[in-house]
Amino acid sequence: MNCLQNLLKEPPIVGSRSMRRPSPLNLAMVRGGSRRSNTVKTLQAPGASTSGAESSAVEMGTEKSEVYSTNMTQAMGAALTYRHELGMNYNFIRPDLIVGSCLQSPLDVDKLRKIGVKTVFCLQQDSDLEYFGVDIRAIQDYSLQFKDIVHCRAEIRDFDAFDLRLRLPAVVSKLHKLINCNGGVTYIHCTAGLGRAPAVALAYMFWILGYSLNEGHRLLQSKRACFPKLEAIKLATADILTGLSKNTITLKWEADGSSSVEISGLDIGWGQRIPLTYDEEKGAWFLEKELPEGRYEYKYVVDGKWLCNEHELITKPNADGHVNNYVQRRHER
Q: Domain Tyrosine-protein phosphatase, which positions (predicted)?
């Protein structure tokens, strides 16, 4: 058995009630289908005509979806498309487990209740909700009116494999407790239902239900085209077994007259930077950082320019010809 539920830790969760690129995955364009097919169920309110104001809102929603899809493709290394303006979409992975996109209004709570959902497990952060104008408080308050459904949040940062890795054990532990308590069907969602949600569902199947990782991944892909970060799940599994041990690495940039040297990537993601410290005696910039086991890509930002250090390990060019520095941190026995 692959079950690791006895090793999982209690999470700090907020709840209500108590680059090679494969073919594009355009989920929201598919309609209908049975529970056991690979098609996506899209739920949206029917409408006959559209006013000018509504048309403008739809156009704005479409533009936001396009920007989000572009960012998602760049961050995930896979060509992914999400159409928020088409409404909530989902797939049954198992008869009791659904992976889908975010709820957009209290009306979506009613739709999920009709198909037997007892637990809504939201992985979004406030910034995700704000981007598409989702009123999470209204959804939570509406859920509280019913005794047959619970809405719970367990936040994971979007497009961040390292944050996913760190949070997975606690998030899956919380999910397991909710499922045991509430029964019925569980709806796991992030924003698009393409990255975080399928990763959490797969980790739950792997750690709790006894699927092998490959078996669970095949089942997931047979039901919903998505891109869970398998490496994050593998590393989270290793973290559970090794206690998230860390070792210190040292990165160095030789002085070249630059006034500022920073690092982006590593475990902080590409959207953040850490400054290096200049050592006058050694004539170089240095950064010491503790990292758990794993492979981390990074780049130097020297006076605003993104550069690789030719004296450190460099990745092979990706499909776009880009390269990064990388460091491989292995557990010391």
A: 89-246
